[in-house]
Amino acid sequence: MSDTSFNCVSVSRKALQSNYKFIESRVAPGVKVMAMVKADAYGHDMVLTARALEDVGCTVFGVAELCEAVILRKSGIKGQIFVMLGFDPENAAIFVEHDLTPAIFSSRAATALSRAAVAAGKQVEVHVKVDTGMGRLGVMPRDLVGFVKELDTLPGISVQGVMSHFPESDVPDSSSTRDGFSTFEQACSLLAGRENFVRHIANSGAVLNFPDTNCDMVRAGISLYGYHPFGKQPENGSDGNRLIPAMTFSTQIIQVKDLPKGAGISYGHTYRAERDMRIAVLPVGYEDGFSRILSNQGEVLIHGRKVPVRGRICMNICMVEITGIDGVQVGDEAVLLGRQGDAVITADDIAEKTGSISYEVLCLFGNNNKRVHRE
């Protein structure tokens, strides 16, 4: 009995590495690039992605939760690993055990970390998170100096950096990015004089649109995986075209059949054949991340042509029309994301139809299907 699936997400190791090197080329010498591999590397497989990036010189990784960081460390990743989402104070000792770097924004968490570090006879580096306009995690700028002074009194921990995040850096002329960076610079200036102090606020959008915000380190997320944070890829000739989408999602046809004019397709008969037509049945549905919202509007590549989804997408199955395409048969490849011949469907194309963003599309496909890393 085989444990394989008809559906497969394929990730290009070379594309990941190329994107990382491109991001490196966009920042000044000496500015580090943190690879954000949270959410299982946006669906690309966190461990394999981190290994691919380590092979081209990446030494800093970022995840959301502590459990992700432990997986990375246990898999042999040797670089610095940041945990961005905070942690339960009861788990403070795990940071010490696995040499992890937390984003700190809570006195309670810092105190627990101090106790764990002292108990182990070790020193733990921390980076303070400050909220400069995102309205998410972080101490307020007015409280930053006092908070850092409080942390300085705690044995076993060492404040080695301060970080923040931009809400609109994907928009090239966003005033909030300029305002947020000004607030960040002012807050950091009050901590001047600290040795080897690392400041970081720039995400993918800022790397591409606001190079003056790079500071000492940037955090690359969606750009690592080949997509521009703004959405649709920039026009030909722009730097954004040097980003290479790393993920392909494909399946295979499991039945080809002819339907007469007027025949209903799928649940609710939301589509009826407008003429005698031929359809291909694909073993992929919303369980696999192919959103039900794409019913009657999604597209798939078969024999190098875009073909439309007909009827509602089911949990494990959908139907596409292949009328007029000769030679289509059971076992032929169908590409839901990626390139086939000269035709291509990107995560941005899918996101546009579902009212979402490429980030979600990649996570849905990658985290719901068998994955392989090429090369």
TrEMBL record:
One of its GO terms (cellular component) is cytosol. Signal peptide: none annotated. The modification N6-(pyridoxal phosphate)lysine is found at K38. Keywords: Isomerase, Pyridoxal phosphate. InterPro entries: Ala_racemase, Ala_racemase_C, Ala_racemase_N. NCBIfam families: alr. This is Alanine racemase.
